[in-house]
Write a structure and sequence with these properties.
This protein is mostly helical. The protein contains 9 helices and no strands. Helix 1 runs antiparallel to helix 7, helix 2 crosses helix 4 and helix 5 packs antiparallel against helix 6.
């Protein structure tokens, strides 16, 4: 299916993955700005429509975010509670934790076969860990960034056949093995409308992105 899509469809996929990656990275001023301004909402609705995702957000859904400073505080507080925690997050944002737990093993960051496989896959596609960071590459946002990168290569015709094959492989072997459950868990756990809507968009996008 993926190899028969046109360049515009791949561009839409890349943009949707980019928006979802932004939504699940640790919040910064960029995210706060686009949420408060309504740009996030507009982009999400536009990309969902273009991709054929059954999702749309009401303009009033994010009205409780306040100004940019208040929004950043709320986003960071909830992201910390959900994905970082003290001592444990409510929801792990790492594939290796989910899949090692599925297998009944002890889930440790970096030191599990799934995380190491994702790291090898990312490096084979030219995506490494940013300098000065120590973030495992099986983070939800980083995996979405990999899909974005591969979809963009297909759209631009840069070794498109290889990139499309890598996209399909990573989607089936990694993303679809845990991210649907991650999205569902975020919807259950979050108390902030933004993460409720971002997780719903992720959940409904995955089948289309695959």
């Amino acid at each position: 299916m993926t190899e028969h899509m046109d360049a515009n469809a791949w561009q839409v996929r890349a943009a949707l993955c980019e928006l979802l990656a932004l939504s699940f990275r640790y919040p910064d001023s960029v995210l706060a700005e686009v949420v408060v301004s309504g740009e996030w909402m507009d982009a999400a609705n536009e990309l969902a429509l273009a991709a054929g995702v059954n999702w749309a957000i009401d303009p009033h859904e994010l009205s409780e975010m306040g100004d940019e400073e208040e929004a950043l505080h709320k986003l960071r507080a909830e992201a910390t509670r959900l994905f970082i925690g003290a001592p444990e997050p409510a929801i792990s944002p790492y594939e290796g934790i989910w899949r090692t737990s599925d297998e009944g093993g002890e889930a440790l960051l970096f030191i599990n076969p799934h995380s190491m496989e994702v790291e090898r896959f990312c490096k084979s596609c030219g995506l490494g860990r940013p300098a000065g960071t120590n973030e495992p590459l099986d983070n939800v946002a980083t995996e979405l960034e990999l899909l974005e990168c591969l979809a963009a290569r297909v759209a631009l015709g840069e070794d498109a056949e290889t990139a499309a094959a890598a996209y399909a492989e990573f989607m089936a072997a990694h993303v679809m093995q845990w991210m649907p459950r991650f999205a569902e868990k975020v919807q259950e756990e979050t108390t902030l409308a933004f993460y409720q809507q971002a997780a719903l968009l992720l959940a409904r996008s995955l089948d289309v992105l695959a």
